[in-house]
């Protein structure tokens, strides 16, 4: 995607060939800055502090982090230590562990002296696959938006939650990819952007993306979506996912479940868009089995923003002394999900639906 006419990806090899550059998403939307990751520790900090975020991007960043770690210790024990260290950074998104396991499994037959370079190249392959997957998600999902437009003859109003655009992946995005494809094809699309407390990824990141791409949109408070649905102002909800079970349960940013409940009550179709790497085939009960990350309560009790003079300030918004809880994700049961948009097509949110797109998993089960 482009920023001021310049194409960017969220992560890419540095010119030195031994490190990577990432877009520092903690600085958006008010400042666009790149950050160099030169070590495994740098990658871990970037993931943990959400300099990079979004399940697919976290996976790619972790793969590069593993490669950077092998530059210091490429032994079998070094691989195990690096995988364990990076896997602890964010527990909910399955893409992170998937990417680490994929690279580690291939390294076992590679000579120790060649492992760092091999892992760096493999991380690049994962990044390229992510771009292809996300573009395919966009093509499949755009068909749904085109059908709505053809049926209604008017602008398609989409509700999103959190940020599942190109900033959450290497490029294109998941939930926003269908919007970009449809918009570029001339389909009139308007996006209602949930602010997504407590980190405001919708207001800060999704709005930033849509602005940059010229997609009409309106930022709304998190609690406004149900009201808009009641009044017929939402045609479809599309969200991303950090982990989806083999049975079709969808884990996504906290607040997604409430949107799905409102969508079900108002008969608004509710879709999750995600690549194959987000599906956890080992789980079938998302509510009981998916680990939910509990983040620092300060993300809820404090807000950081830009003052009229351009300076930044952090303010407290919660009554001093009140305890704060901050679960980062929730799980939307499959029964509330109309369909799952993947790089292979659109499936019903069920074991049979997903297996219809990934029949090779039947043999693996």
TrEMBL record:
One of its GO terms (molecular function) is S-methyl-5-thioribose-1-phosphate isomerase activity. Gene3D superfamilies: translation initiation factor eif-2b, domain 1, Translation initiation factor eif-2b, domain 2. The keyword Isomerase applies. GO terms for biological process: L-methionine salvage from methylthioadenosine. Substrate binds at residues 53-55, 90, 201, 252-253. Keywords: Amino-acid biosynthesis, Isomerase, Methionine biosynthesis. Signal peptide: none annotated. The record marks 162 as: Transition state stabilizer. It holds the Pfam family IF-2B. Its EC number is 5.3.1.23. The active site is at 242 (proton donor). Pathway: Amino-acid biosynthesis; L-methionine biosynthesis via salvage pathway; L-methionine from S-methyl-5-thio-alpha-D-ribose 1-phosphate: step 1/6. The keyword Transferase does not apply. It catalyses: 5-(methylsulfanyl)-alpha-D-ribose 1-phosphate = 5-(methylsulfanyl)-D-ribulose 1-phosphate; 5-deoxy-alpha-D-ribose 1-phosphate = 5-deoxy-D-ribulose 1-phosphate. Belongs to the EIF-2B alpha/beta/delta subunits family. MtnA subfamily. Catalyzes the interconversion of methylthioribose-1-phosphate (MTR-1-P) into methylthioribulose-1-phosphate (MTRu-1-P). Also catalyzes the interconversion of 5-deoxyribose 1-phosphate and 5-deoxyribulose 1-phosphate. Part of a bifunctional DHAP-shunt salvage pathway for SAM by-products. NCBIfam families: eIF-2B_rel (TIGR00524), PRK05720.1 (NF004326), salvage_mtnA (TIGR00512). PANTHER family: METHYLTHIORIBOSE-1-PHOSPHATE ISOMERASE (PTHR43475:SF1). This is Methylthioribose-1-phosphate isomerase.
């Amino acid at each position: 995607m482009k920023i001021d006419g310049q194409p960017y990806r969220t992560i890419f090899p540095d010119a030195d060939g031994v490190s990577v550059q990432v877009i520092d998403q903690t600085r958006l939307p008010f400042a666009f800055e790149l950050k160099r990751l030169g070590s495994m520790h740098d990658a871990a900090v970037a993931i943990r502090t959400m300099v990079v975020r979004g399940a697919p991007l976290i996976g790619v960043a972790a793969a590069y982090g593993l490669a950077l770690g092998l530059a210091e210790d490429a032994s079998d024990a070094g691989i195990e230590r690096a995988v364990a260290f990076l896997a602890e950074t964010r527990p909910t998104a399955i893409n992170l562990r998937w990417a680490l396991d994929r690279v580690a499994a291939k390294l076992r037959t590679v000579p120790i002296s060649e492992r760092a370079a091999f892992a760096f190249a493999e991380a690049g392959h994962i990044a390229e696959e992510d771009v292809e997957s996300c573009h395919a998600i966009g093509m499949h999902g755009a068909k749904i938006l085109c059908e709505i437009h053809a049926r209604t003859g008017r602008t398609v109003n989409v509700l999103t939650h959190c940020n599942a655009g190109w900033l959450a992946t290497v490029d294109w995005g998941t939930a926003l990819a269908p919007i970009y494809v449809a918009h570029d094809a001339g389909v009139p699309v308007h996006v209602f952007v949930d602010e997504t407390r407590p980190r405001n990824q919708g207001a800060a990141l999704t709005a930033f993306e849509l602005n940059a791409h010229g997609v009409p949109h309106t930022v709304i408070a998190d609690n406004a979506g149900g009201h808009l649905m009641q009044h017929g102002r939402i045609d479809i909800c599309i969200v991303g996912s950090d982990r989806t079970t083999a049975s079709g349960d969808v884990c996504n940013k906290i607040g997604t479940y409430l949107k799905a409940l409102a969508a079900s009550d108002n008969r608004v179709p509710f879709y999750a868009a995600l690549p194959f790497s987000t599906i956890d085939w080992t789980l079938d009960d998302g509510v009981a089995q998916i680990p939910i990350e509990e983040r620092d309560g300060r993300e809820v009790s404090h807000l950081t923003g830009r003052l009229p003079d351009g300076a930044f300030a952090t303010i407290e918004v919660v009554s001093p002394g009140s305890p704060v809880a901050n679960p980062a994700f929730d799980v939307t049961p499959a029964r509330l999900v109309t369909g799952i948009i993947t790089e292979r097509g659109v499936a019903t949110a069920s074991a049979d639906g997903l297996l219809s797109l990934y029949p090779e998993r039947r043999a693996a089960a």
